[in-house]
Structure formats: structure tokens, C-alpha cells
Amino acid sequence: MSARTEPSLLDRRSAALATYRPAVRRAERGTVVSVGDGVVWIEGLRSAALEDVVEFAGGGRGMVFDLGRELVGAVLLEQGQAITAGTVVRLGGGRLAVPVGDGLLGRVLDPLGNPLDGLPPPAAAGRAPIFAPAPPLLERDFVSQPLYTGIALIDALLPIGRGQRQLILGDSGLGRTSLALDAVFCQRNQGVLCVYVSIGQRRSAVVSTLEWLRHHGAMDHTVAVVAEGSALPGLQYLAPYAGCALGEYWMRRGRDVLVVYDDLSSHAVVYRELSLLLARPPGREAYPGDIFSIHARLLERATRLCAACGGGSLTALPLVGTQQGEIAAYIPTNLISITDGQVLLDRELFAAGQLPAVDVRRSVSRIGGKAQHPRIRAEAGRIKLDYLQFLELENFTRLGARLEPALERAIERGRVLRALFVQERFAPLAPRALLALLVAFNEGLFDAVPPARAGEARSRLIAAVDASDLDLDSPRERFAALASAALGEFRAHG
Known about the structure:
By secondary structure, the protein is of the alpha/beta class. Helix content is 36%, strand content 18%. It has helices at 9-19, 152-157, 176-186, 203-215, 233-251, 264-277, 291-299, 330-338, 347-351, 374-397, 405-420, 431-442, 454-466, 476-493; strands at 29-36, 39-43, 52-56, 61-67, 71-78, 88-95, 97-100, 108-109, 126-129, 167-170, 192-199, 222-227, 256-262, 313-321, 341-344, 364-365. The termini are far apart.
């Protein structure tokens, strides 16, 4: 049998000439008029549309961000060599897309999908558009499955469901990022993939966060999208949309995804900067008039899909900063109106050592008990009412009023409950341990425990649950009996 020979260069040229057909080829070309602060003004691109990719001669890419009568405004995404006035610009032939797939898990990427961890480019299953429309109403389903954060206070009183948009807001330094990272860590054995998006943060803060995720094994189910504070403003603007596109890929394939946006305050500031550089009219607090829509188009992509569309979900935890606890500022109120609830962190609670410093009175989950296991919902309903009544009574006692013995017992019981909700960072509470804690409190088993020792009693109870074979569907009597034995032993040795 003769070996197969490759066609020669002459044969290939002959074949190409045989199929060649002369035709007029046109390519629209523009010219850079000015460039500065990550914004480029271009003339000559008459057919450019918003969010189109443009490519600069000598390297570098940008995205069309503003359309004028004579000039097109673009934001830089990749800094090429010597982009100056007179540089030739061509349309890139499409919209921005980001690589997606399981090969990205454990990786640190920029908003364009380029690796930032010093490793080769990830093996992607495909590419997904960064700016995709939100799922239509007919593709959505009710939020009914819980997304456990491992934080007892939130899982019991402010439950989050898979497909929900829950805002976390508070002043700087109160633990917003820690709260979100707790939720990411808790998904390790829950079958939920995570996307952590860092926007405009210092490199040291980003490195510290990523090192913690790696150290605790949370990067195995997480991909990080990072646009640090020194990155181009255009990349910082793209970061949350790129992270959402990564999560949507898995959601469309029937999987559950949690996306953390850290934080949208920085994102709003970057958008304001770009808009002012592009000479757009400023509005309230110098933000452009469409600042609401850029966050709405992002957060509306979080949902739970119906079974016919795969049944996946994308849960969004956007973070936003406040000043002196003022939640009536422009950006916080915008995000509160878009999301399905908020978790507010309070500085006074933080100073008093009540960690996590969640203000239950001003926090809410509009999904509520619909996203809780029925057993937890039955126990937590009574506790939330008791806790809110205790907070009101405690405020009343600060006036120095004398109380009846029944009210004093209610206040003492409330202080025990508050101590039970104190939780260390990165120490998630399993759902069955949470149920045991709620059952024990409702049964009055903590009434004889002083508030100062409630944390020790809680640890003893959790250890007993971990050593047992109980699950969420076990009879309530078994939880009560185990809690009675564990706390009885604690009191006997106390």
C-alpha cells in the first residue's frame, strides 16, 4: 500500500486560484481623535453600535460606550502599544464574550477571561456573551429551595433561596465580605458552584481573600473574576457582567450557582467616572441618569429556571457600602428596590461584639419561609417573633423602668438567644445543627443557661448533633431528646 502524500504548495495555490472570485471588499476604518483616562474618542465608525468591540492598530481593544453625531466614545479594555491621536481603529466584528465551563473552577481571571494566577489559559467549554438578556418570565420558576449560608441568624431569621437576590449592605469594616465568603465556603458540600467578583479593590485585599479561599478548599467550587483598583475603568465596569455570564452557563445546564458582587458601590463609582469622561449629563450625586438600569440589567439575570429550561438557579449576593449607616443614599436605595431583601450590618452591634452584626429589625428577606425547610420554618417562626419582642423590651429597659418578673424573664431569655446567634467567622453551622439549636431553645432547654455561657452550651449541643445520625427529616422528639441530654450534661459539669 502506498503512503498518502500531502498536496504540494503549487497544488494548493492552484486550487486556491481556481476557486477565487474577484469582488469588492470594504472595511470600515476609523481614526482616534483623542485618548485619556481609559476613554478613546474615534471618528469615522459610522456603523458602530453600543457594546461593539473595536480593535486598534498595533494591538489593544475597546468597547463602544457612547454614540455621538460625529464621534464615537469607547472605553479601553486592553492597552495596546502607543494608542495616540491618528491611530487606525476597526470594528472587531462582534460583542464581548467570556470563556465558560468547568475548566474555569479554581482559577482567577480578569473580566475578559485572561488568567491572573500565572497558569495557562483555562480549558473552556465555549464562550458566552457578557451582556446577555435576563431570562423571560415564562422561563422562570418560584424560589423554593434554601441556599444555606452556614450563619445561624441568617438561615433562621432571614433565609435566602436559590435564585434570590439578597443585598448585603453596611459601613466599611463591619464584615460584608466576610459574610459573603462564609456563604461561599458553606456551598462546599451543597452542590452549588460559586463565582466571586472583585471590583475596584486593593491588590492586598484581593490576595488575602483568594488565599483564604484556597486555604479552606473553597476554590475547588469557585471561580474568581478580579478587576482590581489599578485596572482599566472599562474592565472594572465589565467585571460583574462577566461573572454573571459564567454563572449563567452553569444555570442553563441545570446547576445551582451563587455569585457574589464585591462590591456594586465601586462599580457605580467607575460607571460615574466613565460617564463624566464621556460628557454625559450628571444627575443626583453626579451619577448619570441610567445608573439604576445598569444594576437592574445585572441583577435581573439572577433567577430560578423552570424545569423545562433545566431547573438551574443563579443566586446573587450584591454588596454595597454605606456611610454612617445611611441606607437612604442614592445607590443603596436603588439596589434595595431591585433586590428581594437586604441584610444590614450595624456599627453599634459590631462594637458590642454581636457578630455577625446583623440588624434584624431593618433586615428582611422577601422570599422568607418559602425558601426554608419545613421543619426549620416551623421552629424559626416562633423565634423571630420572640427575638423582635426582646429587642423592643431591651430598648424600653434603658429608660430605667421597673419591669414585672415575666418581662424580666423574657429579656433574660432574649439575651440567651442573642448569645446563641454569635458566631465566629468561617465556622458554618450545618442545617441539622441549626434545627437542633432552634428546637432546644423553643423547648426552654437554654432557659437555665446564663447568657455569658450560652456559647459554651451551644458548642456542646453542636458537637452532640455532629456525633449523631440525625437529619432534617428526623422526628422532632429525637432532636429534643438529644438536646436535653447534651445540655443536661453541660449543666451537670458546669
